[in-house]
Amino acid sequence: MQAARVVFNDIFAWDGWGGRFNLAAGKCRLCLFDLSGTDDSSLTLLKPFIAIATDLRADGSNLKKVTVRACCTHIATTLARRFAIEPARMLFVEYYPRTHYGRQQEHTIPERYDIVDMVWQDEKALHPKWRPLEGPLLETVRSLLGIARKTAPF
Q: DSSP assignment, residue 84?
């Protein structure tokens, strides 16, 4: 069984580009885990770092608000640089919690987990491709979010 170390579990801010305009700067909820510590020394994980990014809840103002989906490559690039992670060893997941809408909240959009595959070139993430997270890895990510919720509200 993996021993997950929480590397980061808080609001994550990233800088934008464009000089003083700081275009595409933003914040998201981020949980970063390191699963390289294992009880079984014969097991080596190819991607022991799991980053789970979620949009922040709306605060009423959409001014300068960017989504995780729109900036996933920039977030991943910043993560790799800031935490000294070899990009090929990181799994980037976007998490969208279940939401309700309608006059009486009668409609539901189920929660969703997407893996974002990226091409890395010159230490920058490019060309994101999304696919649903499924199977045992989905259960692992759900349990990691459970750990994150115990240490900080999500």
A: T
Cα dihedral sign, 150-53-66-132:
negative
Kindly give, in sequence order, each residue whose CB lies less than 8 Å from that of residue 63, ignoring residues fewer than 6 positions away. Answer: none
* Confidence label for 42 from pLDDT (cuts 50, 70 and 90): low
Number of domains in the chain: 1
Q: Which residues lie below 8 Å from residue 81, measured CB to CB, with a gap of 6+?
A: 123
Pairing of strands 124-132, 107-109: unpaired
Alpha-carbon distance 109 to 103, whole Å?
15
- Measured CA to CA, the distance from residue 48 to residue 60 in angstroms comes to 37
74-108 pLDDT tens trace: 999 999 999 999 999 999 999 999 999 999 999 99
Q: Do the beta carbons of residue 101 and residue 109 sit within 8 Å?
A: yes
For residue 117, give its domain range: 5-151
